[in-house]
Amino acid sequence: MGKGFFKVPKAVNDPIRTYAPGTPERDAVLAAYKDFYSKQTEVPVYIGNKEIKTGDTGEIRPPHDHNKVVGMYHRASKTHVNEAIDTALEARKQWSQLPWEQRAGIFLKAAELIEGPYRATINAATMVNQSKTVFQAEIDSACELVDFLRFNVQYMTEIYAEQPESTSGAWNRLEYRPLEGFIYCISPFNFTAIAGNLPASAALMGNVCVWKPSDHQMLSANVIMQIFKEAGVPDGVINMVNADPVMMTEEVLSHADFAGVHFTGSTSVFKNIWSQIGQNIHTYKTYPRIVGETGGKDFIVAHKTAIPQQVATAIVRGAFEFQGQKCSAASRAYISESIWPEVKELLAKDIESIKMGSPEDLTNFMTAVIHEGSFDKLASYIDKAKEASDAQIVFGGGYDKSKGWFIEPTVIVTTNPNYETMETELFGPVITIFIYEDSKWEETLKLVDETSIYALTGAVLSQDRYALSQATTALQNCAGNFYLNDKPTGAVVGQQPFGGARASGTNDKAGSKLNLLRWVSPRMIKETFVTPTDYRYPFMGK
Ligand code: NAD
To answer: Which of 6, 93, 103, 267 is the most buried (most CB within 10 A)?
Structure first.
């Protein structure tokens, strides 16, 4: 602590701007979008104070317009990866000793920069690079990232304030040290906010990071790095290194000073990382912290008492916003047979009205999926469903990759609760529905619990309080974020800390104290005022 018990500004959620016609934010974001479209952005490798152009490059193309190139990113070599680790460890000497209020000041400034001067830029980069509509970009790259930064600063101070009891003879102090070594942060394509938060949360607690963004988020990752620099994150504290993921991960995980991984992405990649850490355990100076938020097969369960319009809206928003590429997106639903005909009719109306295209056209509700690999995978599952005897495509099922990676919002209805799209994470705008008999409510809850390896999000809709209570108990282990009478997406920092269990992750709840605690190693300091000078205790007297 410096020379005062400083209070940080109370964190409040950044208000979502509307982007309605005539608003200044709409003009600003469209201008920034056009700017990205009309120029070539070159994204370097950031190590310390260096911006390295390695010449080994990848192109940046908007998923909704894949013939267009809007820039390129440079890939790091093995030598660069090691240079980034060395640079981070060098930076650690000063960063880990910097008073916390200085770190807080940097990340509060970063939040302010995103909220104001960088808002249009970071949203536009996310629209161009990850094909988010302006609203999806706004709630992610502006609001959520601002919230992560501000709430984490507040949580950090709350953690530091948690101290043990002391007596008059001894003063006990708990010091929340950063981890000894460096943190490896690996981020996914789908949330700009997550990409920023993975290194920022660890760095806020005094750690140094080597951050590997996704190949499919490089434009917005570059904006994040520029913001960190302008906010005053010192050189070497966060190094942004894009490289071949297998090579880079092998290099990082075999380093003796590797102290932790902060991962968000798919389950299989995380499991591999975990097993590599296990194999290298004798190499490390310290037991690494392993934090990973991974895949999901998120559900909606509609009881016979649910209101059909609410169910239809939960499905459309939950399954199709951002093309179903939220980790929390609804991808399996269980609807009671008595309400299904009405839900189906309402779904038909909604789905018919959905417009899909470029995010630059603000009337679009959906745009393209992230890349050709994802497009091909989704198309193959759709094709299989077209042929299956136990599944039927009731809405959508079309796809077109001529201009962008466009998949229609698709609803499959299956008679087989274990049909493969009820179990496998597809990560696209495809939801599979199983219609259950009203009398089989309890069996259905069991089915929901046992069908998937994941446990990320889930929603139950019902007007019957007993049914909601039953579901809350029966489904207690199959979602880290559980919603009653809502869709399973849209967690807000400070309100619904996010993370799942089972194969969905270590459930360390991004944007909460629980997450920040993983990036510190407490040291207990006991100071005795009158130090004993005789080894004998009173009971030993004659
Ligand atoms: P992904 O696993 O393909 O990639 C994530 C990151 O891992 C990227 O930076 C990628 O380059 C890197 N990577 C890929 N292969 C690797 C390897 N062999 N070794 C080390 N790193 C490797 O995931 P994605 O497609 O970017 O994101 C979608 C996935 O992320 C989905 O499964 C989704 O459910 C999950 N996700 C989960 C959460 C959550 O909070 N639970 C949030 C967002 C995304």
So the answer is: 103
State whether the beta carbon of 327 lies less than 6 angstroms from ligand 1: yes
- Give the C-alpha separation, 276 to 263, whole Å: 14
Q: What angle do CA 344, 349, 355 make, to 5 degrees?
A: 125
Q: With CA atoms as reference, report the closest residue to 16 among 108, 128, 133.
A: 133
Question: Is ligand 1 within 6 A of the CB of residue 269?
Answer: yes
**Cβ–ligand 1 contact at 188 (below 6 Å):** yes
CA distance 5 to 100: 11
d(CA 241, ligand 1 centre) in Å: 16
Q: Answer yes or no: are the C-beta atoms of 63 and 152 closer than 8 Å.
A: no
- DSSP-assigned letters across all residues of 285-311: SSPPEEEEE----EEEEE-TTS-HHHH
Q: Closest ligand 1 atom, CA of 425?
A: 32
Q: Is the beta carbon of 135 within 6 A of some atom in ligand 1?
A: no
Q: How far apart are CA 489 and CA 318, in angstroms?
A: 6
Alpha-carbon gap, residue 504 to 495, rounded angstroms: 20
Nearest in space to 298 (alpha carbons), one of 509, 512, 500, 510: 500
Spell out the per-residue pLDDT of the chain, length 542, in tens: 578 999 999 999 999 999 999 999 999 999 999 999 999 999 999 999 999 999 999 999 999 999 999 999 999 999 999 999 999 999 999 999 999 999 999 999 999 999 999 999 999 999 999 999 999 999 999 999 999 999 999 999 999 999 999 999 999 999 999 999 999 999 999 999 999 999 999 999 999 999 999 999 999 999 999 999 999 999 999 999 999 999 999 999 999 999 999 999 999 999 999 999 999 999 999 999 999 999 999 999 999 999 999 999 999 999 999 999 999 999 999 999 999 999 999 999 999 999 999 999 999 999 999 999 999 999 999 999 999 999 999 999 999 999 999 999 999 999 999 999 999 999 999 999 999 999 999 999 999 999 999 999 999 999 999 999 999 999 999 999 999 999 999 999 999 999 999 999 999 999 999 999 999 999 999 999 999 999 999 999 99
- The one catalytic residue among 83, 293, 321, 425: 293
Amino acid at 413: V
Nearest-angstrom CA–CA distance, 481 and 504: 11
pTM equals 0.98
- Alpha-carbon span 378 to 391, nearest angstrom: 15
Measured CA to CA, the distance from residue 28 to residue 37 in angstroms comes to 14
Q: Is 184 in the pocket of ligand 1 (CB under 6 A)?
A: no
Query: Strand 41-43 and strand 71-74: pairing?
Result: parallel
User: For residue 403, which of 364, 356, 363, 365 has the smallest C-alpha distance?
Assistant: 356
**Nearest atom of ligand 1 to the alpha carbon of 215:** 11
Active site annotation includes 293: yes
Nearest CA to ligand 1 atom 10: 214
CB atoms near residue 123 (< 10 Å): 33
Alpha-carbon gap, residue 110 to 152, rounded angstroms: 12
CB 322 within 8 A of CB 190: yes
Catalytic status, residue 327: yes
